[in-house]
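> example.struct
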């Protein structure tokens, strides 16, 4: 089985890579093997553009049984707490559109620039229906943005626009888009480092989020047959 692990930054998955170094055979720059299982690591860079580019290039030259996108995220809702790891089962682009003069937002579907059911969208949403074997993770609805929200007014605006979303990411909708278009099985997991609220980094806990994220990565590989 061949798995691609992608993350925006190396520090988000550093503990996982360290464990691969001791438990697997390194047979390439970022390739680790153990028996019939191979794990390729790809650090894409931050944001949608870098992620879509690097993932698309990887899929041009390789076929993977599973793509796992791992990283940290913010939570919009109190029942998804800091340190919790979620499986992002649906996502959408949160700032692709126009801002009106009253501050409201219209996306490309509102503007009829893209049909809401045009492949790979379903009513404007990207959905992952292919992965059902990771039920130990709480499912969550994602919103992917180019600018993380940190102002009360803009947070209220986006929550009013998309009341169902639960976590905010910088990359995962890009992973959804590419993998759905390429018909590749994928999993997007996010560990919560902060609540989406008026920006207050003192309330964040990135070390906890990273520790828990990497523990889940270990568990995923263990389920598949590694570690």
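> example.seq
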């Amino acid at each position: 089985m061949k798995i691609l692990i992608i993350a925006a930054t190396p520090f988000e998955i550093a503990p996982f890579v360290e464990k691969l170094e001791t438990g697997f055979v390194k047979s390439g720059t970022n390739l680790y093997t153990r028996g019939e299982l191979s794990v390729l690591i790809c650090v894409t860079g931050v944001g949608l553009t870098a992620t879509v580019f690097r993932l698309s290039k990887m899929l041009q030259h390789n076929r993977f049984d599973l793509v796992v996108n791992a990283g940290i995220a913010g939570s919009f809702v109190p029942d998804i707490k800091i340190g919790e790891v979620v499986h992002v089962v649906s996502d959408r682009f949160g700032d692709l559109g126009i801002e009106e003069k009253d501050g409201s937002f219209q996306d490309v579907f509102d503007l009829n620039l893209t049909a809401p059911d045009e492949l790979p969208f379903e009513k404007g949403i990207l959905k992952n229906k292919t992965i059902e074997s990771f039920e130990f993770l709480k499912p969550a609805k994602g919103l992917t943005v180019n600018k993380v929200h940190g102002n009360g007014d803009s947070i209220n605006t986006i929550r009013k626009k998309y009341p169902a979303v639960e976590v905010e990411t910088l990359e995962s909708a890009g992973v959804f888009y590419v993998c759905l278009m390429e018909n590749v099985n994928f999993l997007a997991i996010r560990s919560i480092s902060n609540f989406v609220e008026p920006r207050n980094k003192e309330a964040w806990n990135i070390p906890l989020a990273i520790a828990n994220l990497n523990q889940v990565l270990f568990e995923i590989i263990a389920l598949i047959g590694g570690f």
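> remarks
The chain has a mean pLDDT of 92.
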